[in-house]
Structure formats: C-alpha cells, structure tokens
Amino acid sequence: MTDDRTSEQASESPQASNFIRQIIDADVAAGKNGGKVVTRFPPEPNGYLHIGHAKSICLNFGIARDYDGAVCHLRFDDTNPTKEDLEFVEAIKTDVAWLGFDWQQNLFHSSDYFEQIYQFAIKLIELGKAYVCDLSAEEVREYRGTLTEPGRNSPWRDRSVEENLDLLERMRSGEFADGSRLLRAKIDMASPNINMRDPALYRVKHATHPITGDAWCIYPMYDFSHCLSDAIEGVTHSLCTLEFEDHRPLYDWVLDTLNTEHHPQQIEFSRLNLDYTVMSKRKLQTLVAEQKVSGWDDPRMPTISGLRRRGYTAAAIREFCQRIGVTRHDNVIEMGVLESCIREDLEAAPRVLGVINPLKLLITNYPAEQVEYLTAQNHPQYPEMGSRELPFSGELWVERDDFMEEPPKKFFRLGPGREVRLRYGYYITCTDVIKDADGEITEIHCTYDPATRGGSSPDGRKVKGTIHWVSVAHAVDAEVRLYDRLFSEPNPAAAGDDFLQLLNPDSLQVMANAKLEPSLAGAEAGTRYQFERLGYFCVDGEADGQAVFNRTVTLRDSWAKIKR
Ligand code: ATP
Ligand code: MG
To answer: Where in the chain is the domain with CATH 3.40.50.620?
Structure first.
C-alpha cells in the first residue's frame, strides 16, 4: 500500500482552531498587514527534523494552506557555520515535502541576507545604538550581572560612531581573531531582562560557511539575524516556542530601532515533548555519533525520517499534530497518542499472514505432497479490497508463542490435545510434541479435520482460538524488526548528559527467521501491511536483497494483557 493511498483513506479531522489562529483571524478581519498572512518555518540545518518540528511545520504551513492568499516560507537559519551541513538542508526539505507541505518558491536562507543584516548593523552604529566591545567572553559574562544583580557598562560602550564603524569594517575584513571583539547592541545593562543587557549582534568567526564559503568571517547572532530575516521577508506572524518569549523585547527593540518596513508579530507556543524519548537535536546527534542507533533515520528515533522508515504515514503525523493542539501550556504527550494515530490510519492496510518466530507443524493425516489453495480476504471489513489464494500444505510454520505445552486456563491457542482453527483453513488438533536433546520443542504434530475447510465445522463444534500460519514450501524468508521505546524512563532528558544510561537495551529485537506468505515476495520498500495478530509492518527502505520488515506499531492485543 502506498503512502498516497493511506493518506487519501485517512479521514483527517477538520482543522481545529487554536489561540494563534484566533489572533490571525482577528488580524485578517481588522485588515492588518493589508489582510496578508505570511508565516515561516525556520530550522537550523544542524540535524534532522523531529516530531517536535512537525508540530511547528503543521502549524505554520497549515495556516498558509487554510488562509486565503497566505504563504509559508521555508527558511534555513544558517548563521552558525561550524555546526551546519548541506546534508541536513536536503534532509529537511525532503521531510517537509513528505509531510505534505509546499513552500512553493519561498525557499530562503538567513545567509541570503548577510549583506543586508550587515547594513542594518551599520545603521545601528550610526544611530548610536551599537558598539564594538573588546571585552573577552569571560569579561562579558562577568559584566552581564545575574538575575538578581544588574550588569555593568562595558568600558568600550562609549566609543565614537566613527571608531565603531571603522572597527566593524575591520572585523569584517578579517583583521581580528575569533572571540577578540563583538558588536553589541547598546540597550540597558540594568534591564531586568538579561537579553536586553547589550546583547551581542556579531561575532568574529573564521569559519567556512556551507553556502557563503569564506566571504564572511563575522556572523550575526541568532537574535539579530532572526528578527531581521523575518522582517526582510515580510513575515506577518513569527511563531516560535515559549523559550523565546524573553527574547521578544529584543526582537521588537531591533525592529523598532531600525524602523524596518515590516514588523512581524512574534507569538510563542509550547514545545512538543513526548515521553520515553528525547527531542533536542544535540541529544539526537549524540545518539547517532555514539552509534546507539543506526543513524538519524533509525526507526526508533523520534525524527521524521525515522518515523517514516518505521512505517508512519504523513497523514498520521499530521493528525497527531492536530490532536495535541497548540497552546501555551508546557506538557508531555504520551507516546500512545502518536501510536493511536498511526493505528487508525493503518487500519485499512491489507492483511497478510506472517510468522515471526517460527515453529514447524506437521499435519500427519494430510496427504503427502498435496497443496491446495485457500481463499483469504485482503481485508475482512473491506470486501472491495478483494481476496487472494493462500497455498496450504501438510507442513506449516506457526508462531512459537501460539503453542504451550502446559497452557494456563485462559490460553486458547495450541497445546497437547487441543483443537484450534488455522486462519482461513481447517481445525487442527495437537497430537504430539517433538523435542531435541536439550528439551527444546522442534516440531509439533497435529491432525486436521477435512470437514472444517473454510474454518467452521458442519457438526457445530466450536474452537476458541484461531492461529496464523504459512506453508513451509511456499514461505518467503524475511527479517522482521520489532521496536520498543528507545528509553526505559519516561523523561530521559531529565538525566542531562547521563541520558544515554537510560537507553532501553531491548528497544530493537531482530527476528531473523521470519516466514511470510508468498504474496509478500518482492514487496516494495515502504509498503505497509497488517500481519494478522502481530501488528502493522512496513518494508524497510534500506535493506537490499533480503526482505526486511519493520514493525510500525502493535495491534491492541488482548493476549498481551492476559499473559501478564
Ligand atoms: P532543538 O532544541 O531540537 O535543537 P531548535 O528549536 O533549536 O530545536 P530549530 O531548528 O531552531 O530547532 O527549530 C526550528 C523551528 O522548530 C523553531 O521555530 C522551533 O521553535 C520549532 N521547534 C523545535 N522544536 C520544537 C518542539 N519540540 N515543539 C514545537 N516546535 C519546535
Ligand atoms: Mg536552535
């Protein structure tokens, strides 16, 4: 099943409103910004996108989609050349497009504006609102004061406009070493908001930029470049997460002082946090660098690329973002919310039979060499999805977990002397258990009742259990990967840099000898199925040759509860 088909079948909830949309509604009604709405999604290309970014993408691009004439820009916030990489730029573009959003011609980089931002810096100096400061990083920190103590003015604060202009130009031309000088805003060293205590605007950094190369050896700070990039692009509503609330006065100060043509309105909302995982790019980067996962797209990662490889659909992720909503309250969302979104979307996936932990079952009274074909529905609720013929023989693979030598009372599957139904097939009764020298069960023997073809008995005899199976001679060999939470603790980020110690050692279980029904031979990467009774699975995109299936999510399984 292709992604497109799932997305089409998904009935996405009608777009819910939220406090930001209400603000925009009012602005549009009042004719603010000439009735225009321009948002942007501004990732720093220093890692792959995660599900938290999806929240911001759905919010910003969702507004562009839903308001008449509105647009959303994709802007790479590439002002920190040492951490950024074009690999990340490409991955981010892929993920945004895969999520179903289109930036059209509005693809930008903060580095597109380096010259304009520099000219704004000159203007601030000319206005007497910025100065070059020679304090060392440590001195700057010392002079800054604390939350309870005001800061002190830098001894370089009163340099003349001419001297500042000269020094900034020499900073740009490469005369000074990294860290030796800063351009700072001249605001208020006694402000209760530390962000307003003469924040740095430019620093010297002799580093090659992925796009501008060696054209620059000074780079604007985030707080300076971000608001100016928004203003240059004519963004109307600059939506960001709550940690930037304290930066808003600086954002407004820069734009007011420079009297820019556009003055975007910054509105903050709460970050998405998910339990049992981490969401900061730095921590995700550590997982990759320390090889705790196979890469940014490891199916256990909360990245968009990891979720995609795991089998998540874009529709399910959009639905998740819808359900969690947009507020100003910080909270932690349970992984179960994300899982129920993908379960609902995959409900319509075709159903197939696959055995992930095989045990051989011989039907001793089935004619040797005989093969017959049993009709199986591709989806019991959707007859329009058709049916297929499953080869059946006297030698089958069944799930090891579906047999117990001494079954407890509520175990309705196979055990010595018990009768169960083979899905789409016959009733069988277990007659013998074969073991090897170590006492390990190697094979079970059964008899079948030929009168029960199709799964019911003419004499009205009922069985409580139905198990899945695959004919040995017809089975497709596959590797099946089962995933669990990446961390054993709900809030691994709370452990700070020790978070790696909270990794769940059993987050990946590789079932190397899975046996699948023959219709799965050559299944294309990305195709999704329900393996009956086992969960939803997706063909892995990275495995060449061998068929590899990733379990996206389990079914709600009553067995799991009973077993515990
Ligand atoms: P991280 O802490 O993971 O490095 P970041 O905020 O530094 O994230 P950016 O690339 O700067 O990452 O983020 C781009 C946009 O995505 C920003 O507008 C940011 O507010 C938003 N964003 C990042 N993480 C989340 C999250 N967990 N929930 C909602 N929005 C987020
Ligand atoms: Mg960042």
So the answer is: 19-110+223-337
Rounded-to-integer distance, Cα 256 and Cα 163, Å: 24
- 43: CA distance to ligand 1 center in Å? 7
What class is the 114-220 domain? alpha beta
The Cβ of residue 166 has, within 10 Å, a number of other Cβ atoms equal to: 13
Q: Which is the closest atom of ligand 1 to the Cα of 49? A: 10
Residues within 5 Å of ion ligand 2, judged at the Cβ atom: 44
Catalytic residues: 44, 271, 281
What the block records as the tokens of 189 is 């060293």
**pLDDT tens digits, residue range 141-185?**
999 999 999 999 999 999 999 999 999 999 999 999 999 999 999
pLDDT of 518 above 50:
yes
Amino acid, single-letter form, for residue 169: E
Angle among Cα 212, 213, 214 to the nearest 5 degrees reads 110
Considering the segment(s) 19-110+223-337 as one domain, its CATH architecture is 3-Layer(aba) Sandwich (3.40)
Please work out whether the CB of residue 55 comes within 6 Å of at least one atom of ligand 1. Answer: yes
Q: Judge if the beta carbon of residue 271 lies within 6 A of ligand 1.
A: yes
Q: Where in the chain is the domain with CATH 3.90.800.10?
A: 114-220
∠ CA 335-100-537, nearest 5°, is: 50
Q: What number is the average pLDDT over the span 212-216?
A: 97
Amino acid in position 378:
N
Does the beta carbon of 526 lie inside 6 Å of ligand 1?
no
**267 alpha carbon to ligand 2 midpoint, in Å?**
17
